[in-house]
Amino acid sequence: MSGIYKPLIVQSDMTLLLETSNESYESARDEIGLFAELEKSPEYVHTYRITPISLWNAASAGANSADVITSLKKYSKYPVSETVVSRLVQISERYGKVKITAKGGELFLEMDDGFIMAQLCAEKSVFRYFIGEPHDNRVRINADFRGHIKQALINIQFPPEDLAGYAAGLKLDIGLRNDVFKPRDYQLSAVSAFRAGGRGDHGVVVLPCGAGKTIVGMLAMAELETETLILTASITALRQWISELTHKTDIGRELIGEYSGEKKEVKPVTVSTYQIISARDGTGGQGHFKLFSERNWGFIIYDEVHTLPAPVFRITAELQAKRRLGLTATLVREDGLEKDVFALIGPKRHDMAWKVLEGQGWIAQADCFEVRIPMPGELKMPYAVAPKRDKFRIASENPFKLAIIKRLLDKHNGAHILIIGVYLEQLERIAEGLGAPLITGKTRNRDREEIYGRFRNGEIKLIVVSKVANFAIDLPDANVAIEVSGSFGSRQEEAQRLGRILRPKKGDNKAYFYTIVSRETREEDFSMHRQLFLAEQGYPYTIIDEDV
User: CB 3.0–4.6 Å: which of 199, 204, 442, 445 could bond 326 by disulfide?
Assistant: First the structure.
């Protein structure tokens, strides 16, 4: 394509400007999304940034610096500067320059370059884990600190390739019930990439919500055939995992344990939550960490790995001899700890563009809308004089939102609708005004499951839900989501909420996502940031201005 018609400008600070009106926009977006992160997404030009983590994730998935440079040159209007090319090569090719290997039960750092070894010896954060003196660019390291040294190496821009292997764990025969389901090609590809020809078995698989990440986990379990610990984001997700394992594998229910606030079963396959693992025990310590050592696990699955809390990161640093699989729809973390996911769970092994799966019919076709509404006159002055944090809440709880919700309910009469928000008082007012059931973190699990069950069988078609809806609710018929408030600018939350309506539908495979925002307020600013990840995946928001 002629340079003038190409959609991309590559800048020397490693940012990329992508024109959305160009006919090559979608193909360029899909290619550069593999190695760059979206930062801004106004109407006409999207801004991406290439970072070390984005390049190392690409490298671990098989895209080397030459592949990245080829993509940039393919779409760039202007010549890509030698400065950018040099930096890309320098950063990308650092992945795997240092390798962690094992021999005779001992762990070593190995590299081909004595200059790199000299640099490591000068870094106290790395040198402290050496045992003895380096020899022939090889040095023994303390195996108990395998995760810690990986973190230290990443911090000095030498992400290691971990080839040290894993403890086998106790064997457990695991078969899949092929009479019940047939794995999809992309799910099989994800497991193949995770295993990486036997050199992998640690890393993250990124798939859209509704694309069957649980199936990927079970496929990996069937290949590894070892006792498995599964960590989830909520008790609802925990029980969905147990249901799926019971339905789609030949593992007897008596071999599957629930380790939660309600039960403390430890069995060959045990499913728990991040909350209970991180919770303080009766002595004030984190005694539930003992779950990691109560059986000889050969495999640990981290569901919704982007929500992994800091205490579980710390214990994971000491579990590097276990095979580890992270599952998520987005590697975005608002706390900036993506590099710890990379170091301790593993690099991104497989990623699938949301729009690709939509085009193949594996997830619903979704249209996204931002509905902007005015603030009531009586709230304008309180909003104007409020502190910044309070401004966001005042705007989020705009009482005019209820009228807009009612209009949307009329528009989608007969649809299966979720109304999702953050502030409980707001949600209580909306549920009362609509005569709809409300589910929050305070709702008993038994009542929660009863409401979800009534929604699934069509007895009710509207639920108001708090942040508990962000993860792993299996409501395949939900086809409309209305977001009334969010967690400031959380990109991961926005992606998860859209994911609640992406399971494929029978008949019309369409879904509609609305976020209602108070016009000319801080909520509008945060809404733009929340939408970044979805814009990167190809979901533009249609702006609708409404008066009340």
Answer: 204
